[in-house]
Write a structure and sequence with these properties.
Oligomer: single chain
Distance between the termini: 23 Å
Number of strands: 3
Strand order of the largest sheet: 1-2-3
Number of helices: 4
Length: about 170
């Protein structure tokens, strides 16, 4: 297993960043839970609303209609992914962009795991509407999401950038 090389950020730095993602995610969700009733919508701009939605499923409400077993499946997947990500952070500490990407994914996954463990659902509150989405999403409303989902998406995007850079170097 590769050890932290000189100049490579330590595992503690990456874990600290993941904790910051979790804290920011949980703080925003707590604010929404305190200020909104389930189903409330507050327009911010013509294309952006703050809402309160509970998602018992995964991305795009996948398995939301299941009988409750999915809660434990998604908690298990999140914890399993975290274990794998920590192993990857230890194995490849010198790959900074890669470590940043998987740290964001881990922080986001754990932010949603906290919701599932505490509430049995994930609190979503960011809602965007664009007319060009109408053929795909009812009314042009992209499915609501949260900061944890945003961190996961940003991390996935950075993984793609990291891989493109790695391929170009070889």
């Amino acid at each position: 297993m590769a050890r932290s090389s000189p100049g490579a950020p330590s595992l503690l730095l990456w874990l600290g960043l993941a904790v910051l993602v979790i804290v920011a995610d949980q703080l925003t969700k707590t604010l929404i839970l305190g200020a909104f009733q389930l189903g409330d919508v507050r327009p911010v701009t013509s294309f952006f609303n703050l809402v309160r939605v509970h998602n018992t499923g995964a991305a795009f409400s996948f398995l939301a209609g299941a009988s409750g077993w999915q809660r434990w499946l998604f908690i298990g997947l999140g914890l399993g992914a975290t274990t794998f990500i920590v192993w990857m952070l230890k194995k490849y500490p010198q790959q900074r962009l890669f470590c940043l990407a998987i740290t964001l994914i881990m922080g986001g996954a754990l932010g949603n795991v906290v919701d599932r463990a505490l509430h049995g659902y994930v609190v979503d509150f960011l809602q965007f509407r664009f007319a060009f989405l109408e053929p795909v999403f009812h009314g042009g409303y992209f499915p609501s999401f949260n900061l944890a989902d945003s961190a996961i998406t940003l991390g996935a995007g950075l993984l793609i950038v990291d891989e493109i850079r790695r391929v170009r170097r070889s």
